[in-house]
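Q: Structure tokens for this one, please.
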Amino acid sequence: MMSPKVDMCVQGVQKVSPDFILITNADFSDIRRVITEKFATIDVELCQLKVCRSVAITIGFLCRTQLTENNLSHSARPNRCLRRSFAWSTALQTLEKRAAYFQPKDGLMLPPGTFKDKVAFITGGATGLGYGMASALSQLGAAVAIASRSMDQLQKSAKEISQNTGGQVLPLRVDVRKADDVAEAVDKLVSQFGLPDIVVNNAAGNFISPTERLSPNAFAAVIGIVLQGTANVTLDIGKRLIKEKKGATFLAISADYAHSGSGFVVPSACSKAGVEALTRSLAFEWAQYGMRFNCISPGPIETKGAFSRLDPTGQFMDKFIKRIPAGRIGEVNELVNLAIYLMSDYSNWINGQVIRLNGGEYPSGAGMFNQLVQVTNEQWDALESMIRSTKGS
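A: Here is the predicted structure, written as tokens:
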């Protein structure tokens, strides 16, 4: 049998057990070539692993062979973000069974033409969640403007969305931290499409760090993008809408830890809490002008930009996912469907709400006794016997 030495140039190789190696890579045709060359006499099975994945199912190869530390190249590391692989264990098999009850559904929940003759403005719209929302709005008939700091990425995304949906997509370069930048971008939006009916404050900046390591500039940068940026966009567009006596729907994207707080993302937690307060406050104050304000507070939804800064190794999410009762992390389309509902006229009586989308993770982490889920039936029998034998109060 040929020695199972992994090609140094192939990324995404991980030892799972003495009998299995797991190889994951977006370009799995390359992997297949290497495997068939290096392991010509080994049974190779193409499989789909649906364990705790989001956005895309991981495609992998399980190769039946013996593997030692010397055989496995030290440079062969699992690809981060969408290509991370999980060790196959009893715990993850349990999560997979649980996740089978809560599988995400493809497609959009609202009918075609829902946003016909509507104009939408989305910050952070060129990538990740913003891209997903922009695509859905365009598909459902809206004229969409996407805004961020990178014109190259904006133009690429606008072209992709327009080609996929046939809708009008306007790329707008803007630094939301700067009120003048926002005003200029909104001027272009108004001249091209008119005042927006839908405003999505999705621009975000975040990274993990011990708080004592943060400089004042680092702290200010996150607050500037998330909180000040949301305020700049909301004030500029809101004042124009009030002047023209036009109503609109505003949606902000927050985070689960905005309410509870969280270590190691303190600037983001502070900023998102401010965004939620702004949402609730203006839901009352500007309802008189025909404006609604709501907020989605999502748990972990895997996107390349966010996860590369929040979980660069993948180790944290592998552990965190065990806290999610639904057995998996969220997918972009799940947030998108909630977002388009909240932005549509179907939700006109929803105002001032912060809606959690987290697979049950938030109450899971809050319950004092929730870790008892690990107790087996046999252990419960023993515990029950001990409890029954206890005398007095």
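A few notes: The radius of gyration is 24 Å. Confidence is low (pLDDT under 50) at residues 1-11, 13-89.
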